Amino acid sequence: MAAVGRIHSIQSLGAVDGPGLRCTLFLQGCLLRCAYCHNPDTWNFTGGAEYTPEQAAAKALRFRPYFGKKGGVTTTGGEPLAQPEFVAELFSLLHREGVHTALDTSGICDLSRAEEVLRCTDLVLADLKFLTAENYHTYCGADFERVLDFLALTERMSVPLWIRHVVVPGLTDGEQHIRQVAQAARRYSNLQKIELLPFRKLCLEKYRALGIPFPLEDTPEMGGEALERLRQLIK
Questions:
Q1: 82 secondary structure, DSSP code
Q2: How far apart are CA 150 and CA 126, in angstroms?
Q3: Which positions ≥6 away from 196 have C-beta within 8 Å?
Q4: Which pLDDT belongs to residue 235?
Q5: What is the largest CA-CA distance in the chain?
Q6: End-to-end Cα distance, the chain
């Protein structure tokens, strides 16, 4: 019997979630509480709408004329690896159709179940949020060692890896810190790309609607010029 998944929303043409144009599926449910999370409306595991893998694949394939061979389908969230059976079946169906699959994940997961997902994953977009166990605990409520274990698994399975890092003013924007992020990322032989993403506050209305305080409400957004200077450091 096919695993039933819960999907918060589907973006038909995403340009920032992997190569080419992507159909991006935002899955419901996440155990982390990252200080700069943009999607607090995906935290609840009982939210969203139910889909079978077949239904989700059919929905995504409707956009194939747009994403073609250069793009594909990305699962994000929320945390896709909180629904590993569903994502594994979905990616397997998409592979049968010759569609490129990308997994956007924090890496906090059950490794044995993640392995099945990775067998049908063409690209992992791994969110490396911090570089210490203390900061992971403080700003995400997560265990850094589990992230490292997941990254090691992608390397053992030779799954292409992009490491992404959100640059937050006053928190993760130091030049030395960015160099250390790049150094940590380049330890993995399957690394293809490092992406520095700007901290934004477009999520504020979501937090207010949900009655949840946004921990970084008083933090300024990351400026384009400042971000570009940091990107130059890791080229």
A1: G
A2: 9
A3: 164, 165, 167, 178, 227, 230, 231, 234
A4: 86
A5: 51
A6: 47
